[in-house]
Amino acid sequence: MDPRHYNGEHIVYVGNYLSPNHPYLLMSAQELLKVFDQQLSKINKNYKRDLIDLHLFSLPGAQPIVDRGYADRIPKMRTPIKNIYIANMEMVYPWDRGTNYAIEYGEKVAEIIARDFSEKQ
Hints:
Layout: H1 29-43, H2 99-120
């Protein structure tokens, strides 16, 4: 994303898929930053540890597991409940998980919501 969308700042996502007993899973966001800081400097020589904010997210599974016939059961973005919409990683089937799909699905559901609400006006 162009930094102009973030007041000239940059968003950095550091992903790491680990076994359930990995020591990193017991660390705080600040502790993990110390682990990864040196490597981030190697990736980008202009990187500097001048963070505005830091968030740590951890989940027990890396991606949804789907079974046979799942494609026929993927929910619609417009749910049967008025003004409730859904867009999540389970819906990107048959593709693998990825930020690009999350953005795509977010944009799609936003278009549906905008269309629905403009029709009510």
